[in-house]
Amino acid sequence: MELNELTNKYLDIVNSEKNRENKKYWDNADERYLVERWRGRSSRRTDTPYTMAMDISGYARVLGIDCLKYYSDPETQLKEQLRYAIWEYENIDCQRYFEDAVFISFGSVFEAAMFGAKINYLPAQAPWYDEQDSVLKDKANLLKLPPFDFYRSGLCPIVHEYYGQYKKLLGDTPLDVMFPLTLRSPFSTAIMLRGFENLLMDIYDDPEFFKDLMDTITGYLKEYATERAKFTGEPMTPGMLFNDEISTPMLSNGMYEEFILPGELELARHWGGVRYWHSCGVTQDFYETVSNLPGLKMMHIGPWSDIPRAAAVFGAKDIAIEICVNANRDMYEKTFDEMVSQLNEIKDACDGKVRYSVRCDGIAVLFSEEECLSKMKEWERAAKQVFPG
Fold first, then answer.
1. Closest Cα partner for 270 from 235, 317, 243, 245?
2. Which residues, other chains included, contact 36 with Cβ-Cβ below 8 Å and sequence gap of 6+?
3. With left for phi above 0 and alpha for psi between -120 and 50, is residue 274 left, alpha or beta?
4. In this structure, which of 18, 37, 282, 357 has its CB flanked by the most CB atoms within 10 Å?
């Protein structure tokens, strides 16, 4: 399908009655919040929305997307993101909102690449950093890092190229091109640069180095946000902190408060708030601390975290929560009745207490495409039965 045809079809979705109806579920529908998988911030404590999304490897299987080309050719990324958005609209019946904008994405490695991390591009999934060749395996390399350059550091030159090409390809099409925000937190980025085990040992063996590393990363992220605002002419926007590695028992809340929180607080003050804090880990021990981040708007609650406690803590401060089920355990392995039972437990824990949404996320094709789509439809039916809107 040619780009003009894809663009027109996507704009028809954006302007559809269904999309206008879905908009009423979210209080961030008019914010520029695009990453590869759109995430809504629920405006509701009852009649709450549910959403579903595959990961890029799932779309690669279902739609035949060549990920090597997707992450190396701007026209391919633009076409394919429109194609899988159209597929979502046509095949998934949920409250996902479609924005009048397109995004540029390099997955989870954008921040680590700023510091020189080696990036591996893979045929059927998102890029990943080289875990065997950490940039800061030798701690002395921290002193050798060059200053951040918005135009030259890491993938920044490629992002600028994509941005220019998107603008050229879309011409006068009424679709905004979103210049990327950073996603990974300082701690998550530090793991990619130093290695998880090394970094945890640094907390005990060399806390001064750990602090210097976190300060350096925080500084880069602040400068990126400042330069992005200048380049786009947009005001500074609240940022995002993706922290999949913050979880008990690897970290205690005390360790988080002492070693990791200072950088997140500095970023929150610089950005003017935190739009979204994310960890798929076991995070209930961190709820109270995270809820005090300045301007926090939404908290991710993963499949292993305490949902009733999240409803109490975040509901008291009117911070929305996004509850994600585990696609493998809760979609592939559960029967329809078990899905309904789980979703009713979530509803009972949250209704009337907190603004919340329920999400089946990161869906991969484990076996055949047909089985995957069948189980997605089954979970969709269960969600629609419990959350009719």
1. 235
2. 56, 81, 103, 105, 107, 126
3. beta
4. 357
Q: Residues near 146 by Cβ (< 8 Å), separated by ≥ 6? A: 153
In sequence order, the 6+-apart residues with CB closer than 8 A to the CB of 339 are: 330, 331, 378, 379, 382, 383
Identify which of 208, 276, 254 has the alpha carbon closest to the alpha carbon of residue 38: 276
Percentage of the chain modeled with pLDDT above 90: 92
Express each pLDDT in 24-61 by its tens digit: 999 998 887 666 678 999 999 999 999 999 989 999 99
Dmax of the chain from CA atoms?
58
Cα distances from 366 to residues 127, 236, 326, 342, 374, in angstroms, run 19, 40, 13, 22, 12
Kindly give, in sequence order, each residue whose CB lies less than 8 Å from that of residue 341, ignoring residues fewer than 6 positions away. none
C-alpha span between 345 and 349 (Å, rounded):
6
Provide the residue count of the chain. 389
Quote the pLDDT of residue 31. Answer: 85
Amino acid letter at 85?
Answer: A
pLDDT of residue 384: 97
Cα gap 330→359, rounded to integer Å:
11
Cβ–Cβ < 8 Å for 41, 118: no
Residue 33: predicted pLDDT: 67
Which of 342-371 are b and which e, b meaning 16 or more Cβ less than 10 Å from the residue's Cβ?
bbeebbebbbebbbbbbbbbbbbbeeeeee
The residue written with tokens 């394919």 in the block is 80
| Ranges of residues in the chain whose predicted pLDDT is under 50 | none
| Pairing verdict, β 125-129 and 119-122 | antiparallel
pLDDT confidence of residue 34 = 63
Residues 122, 240: Cα–Cα separation, whole Å: 26
User: Which residues contact residue 102 at a Cβ distance below 8 angstroms, ignoring those fewer than 6 apart?
Assistant: 34, 78, 81, 82, 166, 170, 175, 176, 177, 178
Match 């008019």 to its residue by tokens: 30
- Residue 106 CA to residue 56 CA, distance in Å, equals 11
Mapped onto helix, strand or coil, the DSSP state of residue 93 is coil
